[in-house]
Structure formats: C-alpha cells, structure tokens
Task: inverse folding
C-alpha cells in the first residue's frame, strides 16, 4: 500500500475523484448564491485546509527561502487558478454539471499542447491519439443528446 501512495497515478486518480465531487457539490451549492461569491467561499475553505495541512505535516517554510522565479510562477498559477474557478462556477451556474465538467476537462488537451510548446515535452503518436480522443469525448459528452 505504501508504494501505491507514493505513485503519481494514485494522487492523480484521487484528484480526478475530488474534481468530480467538486462539480456535483458546487452545482448544488451555487443554486441560490452568486457564482463569484461561491468561488470566494470555496477559496476560503481551500486556504484554511491548505494551511492546516502545511502546519500539520510540518512543511511550513519561510517565504524568504522561496526564489523570485518560484514566487512569480506560483503567483501566475494562482491567478490562472482563480480565473479558472470563476469561469467554472459561472458555467456551472447556468449549465448542467454533466456538460460543463467535460468541457472544463479540455484542460487536459491544453496542458498537453502547452507542455509541448512551452516546456519542451515530447509526446508520441499514441499520446497525441489519446489527446484527440479526450477532446472528441469531451465534446461528445457536452453537446450530444
């Protein structure tokens, strides 16, 4: 079991499961509240949870020990996350969760393309086929019916 918990696939699958619950819980939760305010509440909960985890695991470090490059890219990541959440909650407010979530998961396709363009990562023909299938599947789930 210990080896499984050290695997990136274990954590990625948990992430996917929690992301699925996020869509369902959020759709129910935003029924009678503005989507931006709902994002604010969610952000507070995440901040408190992350703070507790950092303290409980003893992983706090002095902010001055973090490099400027790390700060810049973590701030940019945070801004992108915030923009994503605001857009996601607005989409959930007006659309079906079962249709919004697959389009949101097109981020998998975007990550692959961005990783190749900006990070120099290499993908095989089989990897690209998977990306095409993910994109096709997301569109079919979101717009068929």
Result:
């Amino acid at each position: 079991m210990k080896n499984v918990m050290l695997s990136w696939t274990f954590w990625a699958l948990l992430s996917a499961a929690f992301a699925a619950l996020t869509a369902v819980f959020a759709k129910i939760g935003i029924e009678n509240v503005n989507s931006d305010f709902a994002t604010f509440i969610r952000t507070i909960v995440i901040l408190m949870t992350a703070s507790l985890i950092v303290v409980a695991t003893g992983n706090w470090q002095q902010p001055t020990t973090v490099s400027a490059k790390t700060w810049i890219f973590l701030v940019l990541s945070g801004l992108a996350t915030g923009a994503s959440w605001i857009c996601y909650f607005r989409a959930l407010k007006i659309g079906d969760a079962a249709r919004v979530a697959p389009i949101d998961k097109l981020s998998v396709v975007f990550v692959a393309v961005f990783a190749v363009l900006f990070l120099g990562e290499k993908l095989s023909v089989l990897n690209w086929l998977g990306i095409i299938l993910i994109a096709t599947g997301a569109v079919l789930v979101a717009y068929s019916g």
Observations:
- Residues 13 and 19 are 10 Å apart (CA to CA).
- Residues 68-94 form the longest helix (27 residues).
- The chain is about 80% helix and 0% strand.
